[in-house]
Structures are given as C-alpha cells and as structure tokens.
Design brief:
Elements lengths: L7 E6 L6 H13 L4 E6 L14 E4 L3 E4 L4 E4 L5 H19 L3 E5 L9 H14 L4 E7 L8 H14 L2 E5 L21 E3 L24 E4 L6 H18 L7 E4 L6 H11 L4 E4 L5 H5 L4 E4 L3 H10 L3 E3 L8 H10 L4 E2 L7 H12 L12 H12 L6 H4 L5 E2 L2
Parallel strand pairs: 1-2, 1-6, 2-3, 6-7, 7-8, 8-9, 10-11, 10-13, 11-12, 13-14, 14-15
Antiparallel strand pairs: 4-5, 9-16
Helix pairs in contact: 1-11, 2-3, 5-6, 5-10
C-alpha cells in the first residue's frame, strides 16, 4: 500500500441480520478518512449503499449471515459454513498483515458475534504483534444485546479487558447508558466512551432526477433489511385504505421501501396488495435519507439506522419494533418516553388500531430533537486524541462522559 505518513485505522464489520451495522461503520469510515488512512473489512452480505471515498480501502470477506429460522450462521453463496470460515480467516489474516494498523476497530464483538470469535481474536492478536502500540476499540450500538447469563456477562467483560483498549458506545447517554443493557459495567476495566449516534448525512439538494420523487404529503413505510417487512407493510396498506375510504388523508400516497433482504415472495405479495391504490413500492435505495426528508410521516421498525435517520430529518415517526433482534423494543419504548417518536407494539398491529395511530402521528408538528448525532465526528476526534502519547482520559472525553469501570 502507498505510504502517506498518516495513522492507519482498520475497521472490521460483520452484519448478520439487518443493515444497520454496515451503514454505521461505513459512515465512520467515511468520516475517519479525512485524517486517517482507512481500510474496511466487511464480512456481511452486500447491500446498495452510498459509495465510500476512493481513499477508503475495502476487503470483502466471503459473506455470512444468521438464518433467523435456525439462528445459525450460513454462507451467502450456500457453501458449507466450515469451508467459508476457513476462506474468511485467510483473507482476514492477509488484510491485517498488509495494512499494519495503528488503530483496530471491531464492530460489536464481544457483545455478540461469538460464532466468529476465532477470526476476530486472531485478527487482534496478529495486528498487535505487528504493532505493539496498537489501539483496539470495540464499536457498539446504543442498545447491545443483553447477556442471557452471568457467565456470558463475565466472558464479555474478560474479553474486553484482555484484548481491547476502549469501548465506543454509539449513542447518546441521555437516551440510554450501557448499564441498562449490560448489568455489570463495573467489571469492564477499559474506558467506556459515549460518542453520540452515528447519523448519515443527506445532501441538502438531492440529485435532479430525485427532486420530484416524494411529496410533502407522502407517508414512508420501511423495515430496515426487510426480513420481516411483510406484516408491517401489509397491515399499513390495509390501514391506509381505511383512512382513504374515510377521506382522512386526501390524495396522499403511502410509499413502501423494501429492504435488501426482503424475501422475493413477500415483495411480490406486497406489490399485489398495493396495486390500484394510492401506494408506491420502491426497492432498497442508498438515498433513502434524501427521500425521507420532507415527507409527512415515517412508519418503520425501530432499528438503529432508521431511528438515526428519523432524528436527523425531524420527520414525525411511528415505530413498530421488530422482535427478531433484541434492541428494537427497548429503543422504541425509550424514544416514545423521550417524545422522539410514537410507537405501537407489534401485538397491537391490526389495521383499525394502526389507522388511528397513523392519523395521530401525521398531525404532529415537526420538532428539533435534542440528541447527539455527531457520533462519527466525535469518534474521529477521539481517536486523534487517543493516539497522542500522553493523552489523559479526562481530555479524551471532549465534553462527553468516559467511564472507567
């Protein structure tokens, strides 16, 4: 690789179910590349995303995902998982040796991703042999999965203490803190740093061919990666037809954005349901944020990425949390408590109840939400300071808290 003299940051990301992890780490990579040489190692399935700057290198490992029916790892191309894991290990080792990082950022492990612990710990050990001064950071969302047992809690803390230097929590501690999800934070001896939410940035003016795409009266319905999109979207369509029949929404449209992992049969069924009505069905798009800005209401799951989009655009929002991942129910409830969004429980998702919730949420005024959304920029500034030889923890916080267990 070309020697630039700038510090080198190696990012390891592995999405197993949705797209939030991939979007978040790419936003961090994009921001870090202003001051660092950045290389991203991506082990998840490919999705349509805004391109990274040419200066950000990318290594794609053979992709794996978690089959939500069996909860087991599966290879995206159908190969036996053991063979794929061997190929991944070889590619990861080569990338670590080639890049020789000063900072290694591991997305989400050890709070989860234990199926891949061998390759991740191996990468940390190898990178630290190449550079004994290496800084290793765990990059985790605002709501990590809660450990199921005391033993799991101890295992996570021991791994952090042995292999990591910092835990970067990409959330606003005024909304939630790590101890609400990890009961024994005191056992984590490395500093826990709250960066703020990592929010995508939409251009002020979208591309010319997209300026007339959505109107201010449209309601947007999305479901992140789309694995469980059909129930939310079909019920939303039924609720919208009720409101149209009553004359409550005029000629407004409901626009569905499919996820990249929405099953093909679900896509077909939704298009059939929407035919002939005030609906539009769109594929997953890397410019979703541009399309969301200015619409009347967002109806969505409560994934990290969608929620930061809502916060950044000030669009009124109705959250219907999915239950296949552990963070959404808590995040939806907390956002409702803080009046950042409305929420309706999955068990209450019938067309009549949803119709009333839609009408109530659409009539709300846009509000500026006082939440820290500069998580990528804070991470950039934090890593620059952390690499100074005599940096003190108190100065590293840059006005946000740093807990030391």
């Amino acid at each position: 690789m070309i020697e630039t003299g700038r510090p080198r940051v190696l990012l390891y990301a592995q999405g197993l179910v949705g797209v939030g992890h991939s979007v978040r780490i790419r936003e961090i990579a994009r921001t870090l590349s202003v001051d660092f040489d950045v290389h991203l190692i991506d082990g998840g399935r490919s999705v349509a995303e805004a391109p990274l700057p040419p200066r950000v290198g990318v290594t794609r490992l053979p992709p794996v995902y978690r089959d939500i029916r069996t909860s087991r790892l599966a290879a995206a191309d159908g190969e036996p998982i053991t063979a794929v894991l061997r190929k991944r290990q070889m590619a990861l080792d080569a990338a670590v040796c080639r890049f020789a990082a000063d900072v290694l950022v591991i997305e989400y492990f050890p709070f989860q991703r234990w199926e891949l612990s061998d390759e991740i710990v191996g990468a940390i050990v190898r990178a630290r042999r190449l550079n004994p001064k290496l800084l290793v950071c765990c990059s985790v969302r605002d709501v990590p999965r809660r450990p199921r047992t005391r033993g799991e809690c101890e295992k996570i803390a021991a791994t952090l203490n042995e292999y990591f230097d910092y835990v970067l929590v990409h959330g606003d501690e005024r909304i939630t803190r790590l101890e609400e999800h990890f009961p024994d934070v005191a056992s984590i001896k490395v500093p826990v740093v709250y960066t703020g939410y990592v929010a995508r940035k939409a251009p002020i003016s979208p591309a010319p061919d997209r300026t007339q795409d959505l109107s201010s009266g449209d309601v947007v319905v999305s479901a992140g990666g789309g694995i469980d999109a059909l129930e939310l979207m079909s019920t939303s369509a039924a609720a919208w037809r009720r409101l149209v029949a009553r004359g409550d929404v005029g000629d407004r449209r409901m626009v569905f954005f499919l996820g990249p992992f929405t099953p093909r049969e679900d896509c077909r069924h939704l298009r059939e349901l929407s035919a002939g009505g005030p609906f539009d069905v769109r594929p997953f798009s890397d410019d979703f944020l541009c399309r969301l800005r200015g619409t009347a209401l967002s109806v969505s799951r409560a994934g990290y990425n969608t929620c930061t989009d809502i916060l950044g655009t000030s669009v009124p929002a109705l959250l219907v949390p999915g239950t296949h991942v552990g963070d959404q129910v808590f995040r939806a409830q907390r956002f409702a408590e803080r009046r950042l969004a409305d929420t309706i429980a999955l068990g209450d998702l019938d067309p009549d109840r949803l119709a009333e919730a839609l009408l109530e949420a659409m009539n709300k005024q846009r509000v500026r939400r006082d939440v820290a959304l500069d998580g990528a920029e804070f991470t950039q500034a934090f890593l620059k300071r952390a690499m100074r030889p005599l940096a003190r923890l108190s100065s590293l916080s840059a006005g946000r808290s740093v807990a030391t267990g």
